[in-house]
Specification:
67% of the residues lie in helices and 0% in strands. The protein is mainly alpha-helical.
């Protein structure tokens, strides 16, 4: 009896091993050499790095001046980046003209603020509600009292004219970020409101602010805001641009949040109504958590733009970090082309570190939220 036709009478040929799906070589192949176009661009990028990296590294590290009493060594022929200038001017970059004997107050405010932000940002840290209450309620009050001073507490008053550097930049950025998000949510809800007056006011505010440059808003806040209140109530010169920055950012944030609200299916609204929830409860418990999750990239992008836009406050006479860098280079002892370039490189690194950190943290949040949804 012959064997059935479907029964193999000889061994099958050996198959090649499967292509690995993990490891550095797989990563390189998939990300850099996935196809002809990717291969061409990868080779061009490598060629550019080979051409540009050596002179940049030589300027920043090899030929750099790391220690010097003044700018003489940095002005020598062939000298690279003048990092000695950065070390010497670092206190001015951080504190501005804040009095020397009171800079410990700035150190405490920055250290406590960094600790609270780290506590709140740690997604698995216990007591995050306590951290939020401390950061958004208690900390601002204590920080203002400590930085500005209070004679009754034995703290000499330091006028905001003397504040500057990293201190002012962080105050502007963090205050703008903290104020713009809730204000943007309220404006987005107002724009979708069924009340004509609320909707008209929200739309008018958003369109007017978005239709003018930020410089205009800063000038209006600095020059016109004191005209609308009694002279005794005139806002502080640092508070005026801070209000302008927060208003400007809130208009853009409102459009980001509105995009998230429009992305929510009508079934979510109807389901929340079917449960008997009131409008505030629907928004707080059902709609806004989903909408804000959807637009996390847009929110973080607005935060990053706001952080960089704080450099514009220098136009109205506020000595932010970039303004202190620009002013310090005018010191005759530290004048020179490489010194100026080093200052701006240092400023670029400062802004890059903060913006990149916010970007990576938002990506980690998105991954955690996506993992929670999939589970």
């Amino acid at each position: 009896m012959s064997a059935p036709a479907f029964v193999r009478s000889a061994s099958a040929p050996d198959l090649p091993p499967p292509v690995p799906t993990a490891g550095p070589m797989t990563f390189v192949r998939r990300r850099l050499f996935a196809g002809p176009a990717a291969t061409v661009f990868t080779l061009l990028a490598i060629a550019f790095l080979i051409w540009a990296a050596p002179p940049v590294a030589r300027f920043l590290f090899v030929d750099a001046v790391w220690s010097a009493p003044d700018g003489g060594a940095c002005r020598a022929p062939g000298a690279g980046a003048c990092w000695a200038y950065i070390w010497r001017k670092a206190p001015y970059f951080v504190y501005g003209s804040y009095p020397l004997d009171a800079r410990w107050r700035v150190d405490i405010v920055l250290a406590v603020g960094a600790a609270l932000i780290a506590w709140l940002a740690a997604r698995r840290a216990p007591g995050r509600a306590i951290a939020a209450a401390l950061l958004f309620v208690a900390y601002p009050i204590c920080a203002v009292v400590l930085l500005y001073g209070q004679a009754g507490l034995g703290l000499p008053v330091v006028p905001t004219d003397l504040w500057g550097g990293v201190l002012v930049t962080l105050i502007m950025a963090i205050s703008g970020i903290v104020l713009s998000l809730p204000a943007g949510v309220l404006l987005a809800l107002g724009r979708r409101s069924k009340l004509p007056i609320v909707r008209a006011l929200s739309v008018g505010f958003i369109e007017v602010i978005r239709g003018v440059p930020m410089i205009t808003v800063l000038f209006m806040a600095n020059l016109m805001l004191p005209l609308f209140v009694p002279e005794s109530w005139s806002p502080d010169r640092l508070l005026r641009p801070l209000i302008g920055v927060a208003l400007f950012a809130s208009a853009y944030m409102a459009e980001v949040v509105r995009g998230g609200l429009q992305a929510i299916p009508n079934g979510q609204f109807e389901g929340a109504m079917a449960l008997g929830l009131t409008y505030p409860q629907r928004m707080r418990l059902v709609i806004l958590p989903q909408a804000l999750t959807i637009v996390i990239p847009g929110i973080v992008n607005s935060f990053i733009a706001l952080f960089k836009d704080t450099t514009l406050v220098a136009i109205v006479g506020i000595f932010d970090f970039l303004r202190t860098v620009d002013t310090a280079r005018l010191d005759p002892q530290w004048a020179g082309p490489t010194i100026t370039a080093t200052g701006y490189v240092f400023a670029a690194l400062f802004y890059f570190v903060f913006c990149f950190g916010m970007s990576r943290y938002s990506i980690a949040m998105e991954r955690d939220l996506a993992r929670g949804v999939s589970n």
